[in-house]
Amino acid sequence: MIQIDRNHVTKNELADLLRREDFRDVYELADRIRAENVGDVVHIRAILEFSNHCRRVCRYCGLNARNSALPRYRMKPEEMIETAQEAARAGYRTLVMQSGEDPWYTPEILGEIVREIKRSAKMAITLSCGERSRDVYAYWKECGADRYLIKQETADPAIYASLHPDSSLEERVACLKNLKSLGYETGSGFMIGLPGQTAETIAMDLLLLREIGCDMAGIGPFIPHPDTPLRDQPPGSSELCKRAVALARILLPKANLPATTALGVLNGKEKNDIFSCGANVVMRKVTPTSYKRLYEIYPASLTDTDILADRRQLEEQIRHLDRIPL
Ligand code: SF4
């Protein structure tokens, strides 16, 4: 079997691996490392998209502040708490609370919501609310947040700058390092198929995950959104995504690696396949239906099922793949 030295593999070696004609032995290695380090369990995370307001203008994202075609919503704190409780009753143990960068939720408002969900629903909480100061991250940790998700999106500073006119890769990485040093389980991730990206860029992305020491990494394809400046770009390759997930598993043996929702959008069969190349997590929206359709970072086909029925169906699909839903 192929050997990859996770602590010393270089950018060029990773890029060569990504370009290989036959990747099967790398997939086999990733799957073995997954089985040895995180076992056969697939963690199902509930994701609550509580606000689609965003002050930023990321050029790939349907929620960007310049998209005037999008009706905006904010969930009330009580609604968020009730939804979290319903998700807990359905069996979810982790709630990912995600929003655009929406200053309406001050540190205090969001902190109180986190406290109440921890108290009444007893779930692990992952926040995914963008770039904030170290002090704010520290405060939310005190309020009970366990994990934080903020993707690097790309490790190439020039591509990052072209996609994010109002921020820099340096600031993003500083946020990730602050979170890690505050004791959060820290999640990053990146997109495959961004304009200007090469195998070397993806190799840099993988090495940045290793440098930060990420506990989670979401790797998914770029999918063009019709209401963004990148509407005419081609979508990212799902095969390349799977390869990047497999290499992330090799570099970060114990990390939680979601089979991204975006990958599911591309092809249901491929989403199933991704569990065999290193992924061990799946995210499920518990956002109330009336809001769910208004939270489109990329176009998605969404179904209207209730939280419990949706979870049961997913558990069944996971068992069908000989994995254990949790
Ligand atoms: S990617 Fe995040 S920060 Fe950027 S516009 Fe979308 S929601 Fe806002």
**CATH-assigned homologous superfamily:** Aldolase class I
Largest sheet: 9 strands, parallel
CATH architecture: Alpha-Beta Barrel
Inertia-based shape: globular
Which descriptors apply to this entry?
binds iron/sulfur cluster, single chain, alpha/beta, 326 residues, TIM Barrel
Describe the structure.
- With 326 residues, the protein is of the alpha/beta class.
- It has one domain (11-317): Alpha-Beta Barrel (TIM Barrel).
- Helices cover 43% and strands 15% of the residues.
- Strands 1, 2, 3, 4, 5, 6, 7, 8 and 9 form a nine-stranded parallel sheet that branches.
- Helix 5 (134-143) links the parallel strand 3 and strand 4.
- Bound molecules: iron/sulfur cluster.
- Residues 54, 56, 58, 61, 63-64, 100-101, 130, 297 line the site of iron/sulfur cluster.
- Iron/sulfur cluster binds next to loops.
